[in-house]
Amino acid sequence: MTLLCLLNRGGAARGLRSTSHASSTICCGRHNVNINPTPTAARGSQLRLNFTNTYPRYCATASQPLHTMGSVDKPSLAGIDLPIIKLDTTLTELFRRASPQHASTRLGMVFCGVNSGVDLNPDFPRNTKYLYQDSPFNTVPRKELTRKNHDLRKSLAMKYLSLIPQRDAFIAGPSPVIMFNMNQSPATVAHDREEATTTLSVLDPSQRPNLVFCPGPSKIPMKEYGIDKITYKIVADGLESYPLTHSLETHWILNSKAGLARSGLPTPRCDIISVKGYPPASPRSCCDACRADKRSNDLTFIPESCSGPRGQWVKTESAKVLSAISSRPVPFVLKNQQVFGGAGTWLVTTQEQKDDLLSDFSSPDGPLRKLLSQVTPENHHMDPAAVVISDMVSNPIGDYGLTFFVNEDGEPVFLAASEQMTDGNNAWVGSTIVYSRQEALYERFQVLMSRTAEFVAKHGYVGPVGIDVLETGTEGETETHCGERTKFHVVDLNVRTSGSLALPLLKGHFTQRGLDCASSFGITVKGGREEFVRKWRREFEEGRMFVLSWYEDREEGASIADVVVGAENEEGLQGMIERVKEGSEEVVF
């Protein structure tokens, strides 16, 4: 089945991949959120979320009327009574409070994923300037990264253009959320809207986003929908022409692995192997092998048979990377510069894994040659083909995903600290959070959170941030790149919405039902949404389960989805997760 096999082919090329974010579990307290300053030892005052019994009313202020969802106040399927979900706060409210002088600015939110391997559709081409290495880029042979590979393109489009954007739209609040259609056939356009509006119809009407569907990034109707600026999750090349909340290049660099290494944050000691320059000639002026390549509209590629200056450049730069890997003793972690979807990280713990990695990277169709082939005069200054080789954190005793919102003044608003869920390849598939532990986890991580917020804010970023932190039993057990002795090691910095961000905003929804824990995770199931909801009818009607995002491939008779579940305690939660997953497959993000 196309949908089932393609979405799950993202394991590590060799060794284990690191995490990205797709599910979370939380246990917590009251009903709603106010943001108030509280003292901190790190910096003057710090903003935190304090839950109360009153909910603020949010309302959109459009300069022009938007095409709203048009959903009824109480969603339902025939014979099923679904409860309305009230979030503790929304991204819209957090942005307004983060920058009061810009509170009237109407933000359009773009939450789609991107890739650099293949066009998602004719209106959403692959990124060629701001490179991202997702699983298909690294693992799919170059000959399959083509516009003719309709199955691959469809599977990626379902994930990047519907599933991930729905998940973030769920917590967006009453702002325009820009969604891109899978394709422009009338049936698909209608199906795209139906899936998104059905997912969001369970929200309180005052917190539902205004969905704006359009063909692709170059065709966002800014004036028609009264949008002043765009804020975004991932850099898409097509966003360059719009007024933005922050620079695309700065955003890309902040999220890069070299950016984290140079941040001054306590990340494991590492070496950055940079690439010098870019291929010095065009394919037509290079050699016969390059001129014979007829795939000009697909992924740019410098073949191994190239005898001209392009091939010599790839040979020289590849040798630097391969030499660095070869000389590095195990264990170590190798990361591509910029990744998305849990790809591009190899955990190498044995000599056999190291040999396999070297074999993959020296392959004529491997990830290194594909990546070097994408370096251009327009992007080489960002060092997109660099790799980072870092020490592995020794004997970690905790693995946390910390989420917070950075205000304009650099102060963070703590949202939650979750515990990560990964698959057999160490790719992120979810997180778990216990609400009753959040006070203690806030105290544990407040200094690190403040340092991270200060770092991203000085680069002009305002918005959600996630960091992955490994905790060791003693300080200095793993050497940091900045020389600091610490128990807490930042192994990933995501200056964007994370997959677990919905969970802290659902605290009131779950705790008022006596549910101290919650989790969100990705699944693939046979059939559609209605069959799934009916199968779990009691849990849906009790408010302990709901859909965070859903897309059904009607041609294949299967769906990909994110679901959220809640339980009274961790044991009950794990049992619930296992029961749901028994009839489904995990979706790696």
From TrEMBL:
| SUPFAM superfamilies (alphabetical) | Glutathione synthetase ATP-binding domain-like
- Specify the domain of life of the species encoding this protein: Eukaryota
What name goes with this protein? ATP-grasp domain-containing protein
Q: Which organism is it from?
A: Podospora comata
Please name the taxonomic classification of the source: Eukaryota, Fungi, Dikarya, Ascomycota, Pezizomycotina
